[in-house]
Amino acid sequence: MILAGGAGTRFWPASRRAVPKPFVPLLGDRTLLGDTLERLRLLAPARRTTVVSAEELAAATRRALRAVPGTRLLLEPVARNTAAAIAWAAAVDLGRGDEGVIGVFPADHHIPEARAFAAAVREAARAAADGERLVLIGIEPARPDTAYGYLRLAARGRRGVVPVARFVEKPDPARARRFVADGSYLWNAGMVVARPERILAETRALSPEVWDALGAALERSRRVFALRSRFAWSDLGSWDALGTQIAALDGNRVHSSATPVTLDAERNVVWSSTDKTIALLGVKDLLVIQTTDALLVCANHRAQDVRKIVDELARRGRGDLL
């Protein structure tokens, strides 16, 4: 099951309401959703793959699925949250009489090592097949990142599937450094593997409000386990995160068909969907993002605040840029 909703406001101006982040070719010719669909072909045929999207994104989603005929599509009439989407898809699978485990995967992650990813999912699926466990794909931290949530394992250093002691929200830098040094914390990649019966049973047992509280139910469940995984992964949560995945050119990270002109400029991220030349002179640590109708210039450390630009455009009635 692929989750392809969300606004992706931190990727403005490339991500818009009508064409949000999963539908944008951020790192190449293929969209992030396209990359996800291709990666999952290693695990299941199209007929056993479901994309959950929003009703207002129906046209964009159907266009994306033309490349993989047979893929199922669920369109949420009203956007709720990830928890509601997971519960709905689990219920639909049970109603269809499908057997086996469900793997839940966001559509906008960057995972260059597809075979290592598939191997980890298969291991998680074997652990979840008895219907007793909810298994999360946890990523061994490569650095003390403050943009990710963490999973604290009940046993330090163990390989394989380990019980989760608790969920930890995005930490401050000092705590993130402690987590990495500790060895019992993993990045929470937002990927879940479980039998649909288990997902719904945990929800019913721990939270009567199925659509709104599945996330809280998972955190309280004693059946949540995590698989320690080491494949390269990024949730591409903002432009600065994307910059780490872009090739370096003259001390800057550049993704553009037109090579930028840079003089005394370094550690900038340049991304453009146009053939216009960008010139940088004497600047450092900037995000320079160009589309056909908008240009974003932002300090790299303010990447998480790009959504505030979207809020301000909405306040000013600039629906044409949303």
Short description:
The chain is α/β, with parallel strands linked by helices. The chain is built from 9 helices and 16 strands.
Structural class call reads alpha/beta
Arrangement of strands in the largest sheet = 5-8-6-7-9
Distance between the termini: 28 Å
Say which CATH homologous superfamily of the largest domain is assigned: Spore Coat Polysaccharide Biosynthesis Protein SpsA, Chain A
Mean pLDDT: 89
List the main descriptive attributes of the protein structure presented here:
322 residues; 2 domains; alpha/beta; 24% strand; Spore Coat Polysaccharide Biosynthesis Protein SpsA, Chain A; 5-stranded mixed barrel; single chain
Notes on the structure:
It is a single chain. This protein has 322 residues and is of the alpha/beta class. It folds into 2 domains: 2-229, Spore Coat Polysaccharide Biosynthesis Protein SpsA, Chain A (Alpha-Beta Complex); 239-321, no CATH class. It has 9 helices and 16 strands. The chain has helices spanning 32-40, 58-65, 82-96, 114-128, 173-182, 196-206, 210-220, 239-243, 306-315; strands at 2-3, 50-54, 72-76, 102-106, 134-139, 150-153, 161-168, 185-194, 224-229, 248-249, 252-255, 261-263, 269-272, 279-281, 286-290, 295-299. Helix 1 (32-40) links the parallel strand 1 (2-3) and strand 2. Helix 3 (82-96) packs across helix 6 (196-206) and helix 3 (82-96) crosses helix 7 (210-220). Residues 211-217 have low confidence and may be disordered.
